[in-house]
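Bumping with the actual sequence this time:
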Amino acid sequence: MRSLRLPLLSVALLTLATHPLLLAQTQDAAPVDTVSLLKELHRLRDQQNLESNKSRQSALKDVISAANNPERAILLWEEAIRVVQFSGAPKENSVFRDWKEKEGDAFNAPLVRNAARLYFMWLSLTIQRDGGTPVKDLLPQVLAYTKELVTQDQAVSALEDMIKQEKEAPKPAKPVPPPPVGVHHKATHDQIKKMHDTIFRRPIDGSPVVQWLRLKDFINAEGWEKQPSNFDGIYNSIILPEFRLNRDPKALEYWDLKYNREAEVAARTKLAFEVEKFTTLRRPVLMWSRAEEML
């Protein structure tokens, strides 16, 4: 899925048509058929655009299939890691196998599998936007995505609470021995959290999937959020501008969601200081922002 973009083609058209050296040389040589030359360059440009669109559609097909199937999403992500991180390494297969035994089991966790699916869902929307699909046409899918993002965030918060409890629990009298060689052990909560964040809490343009499938030329839509887990970024850069443009009262729903999420975070800490800080500092700010949105 290699990109075939030629960003200097339009400059070449103008240069070949008007360059003074070329015009001077044509005074002593046979006349240059500039009409035919420009026609050929236009043909090359159209061919380049056609090939680029074919590459985009091919990539989009693979990405959408992963967005609709967690199993497919995990398979693609694992293959991307194998190619990007381990391809060409000495004993490539054994090194990749060792990695899977140590870290790859985290892919079996439902939280990680859903993170991979959501990653590909956001990647598909990004590719479509970069290809020229208007925001208003993508908005229903973007809104549906943010609802799934809220559920995913709640699951991550629950995992973080379990990790915190494990760290605060009394240590065993005797240290746990390492597992025997060749014996499979389930991924720890820390490993699951680490794999989730690797997939979901980084910009898509630096992911192994984008590198492997060579998608960097297809994810550069202006004003588009590139981090699939950034709820606020998605709303502020994509959803709210569209709502405001159409004076849509659904823009107020963002501030209600933001209020509830921050209140839950403060309550989950079970710290009086955090609850008080939210009540006295953040709550008035959020209510004021909502009022401004209404105006």
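The tokens above came from a reply further down the thread. Residues 1-6 have pLDDT under 50 and may be disordered.
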